[in-house]
Design a protein that fits this description.
By secondary structure, the chain is α+β, with helices and mostly antiparallel strands. Helix content is about 15%, strand content about 35%. It has one domain: Lipocalin, CATH 2.40.128.
């Protein structure tokens, strides 16, 4: 069995085992406290492709998604979710997720659909030294500037 397949099996096993444990949906403030200064690593559901991102305090997300190195990734929180955005304002792509925890397992759900996007764990600090690699982009925090996403700024 390949290493990715073994990892997927383990993560699915952990998810099944966690069903007996209490699941907690985090607020935006709780997500920020958990993610900031740490690395979120896991696999996307469906594709089983990996992601691993160090969450800088200034809003940058260094690391990789689906084996592609981040060159412009930013993150921010809303009252009930974490949102990632990529690219300049005129081409910005934004993705928002609710976060649930069950023990050490993090369940990432697409917002607003609620479908599971991936499973992850928090790795304390920056164990892969992502912050030492070139990450010269600046995050403006304006997720509402994404084309077609202006409703994100409304409550």
């Amino acid at each position: 069995m390949s290493r990715p397949a073994r990892i997927a099996m383990v993560m699915l096993g952990l998810l099944a085992a966690s069903q007996a444990a209490a699941v907690e949906r985090l607020t935006g403030d709780q997500i920020k406290q958990l993610f900031e200064g740490n690395t979120v690593s896991g696999r996307y559901s469906g594709s089983n492709l990996p992601f691993s991102e160090y969450h800088h305090a200034d809003g940058r997300a260094s690391g990789h998604n689906r084996h592609l190195t981040n060159t412009d990734a930013c993150w921010t929180t809303t009252p009930d979710a974490v949102c990632y955005y990529y690219g300049p304002q005129e081409k910005r792509r934004t993705y928002c997720f609710t976060i649930e925890t069950s023990g050490d397992l993090i369940v990432i759900r697409n917002r607003p659909s609620g479908r599971i996007n991936g499973l992850a764990r928090i790795e304390k600090g920056d164990p892969y030294n992502y912050s030492a690699k070139k990450s010269d982009w600046v995050c403006d925090g304006l997720i509402s500037q994404a084309p077609g996403r202006s409703k994100l700024a409304r409550r």
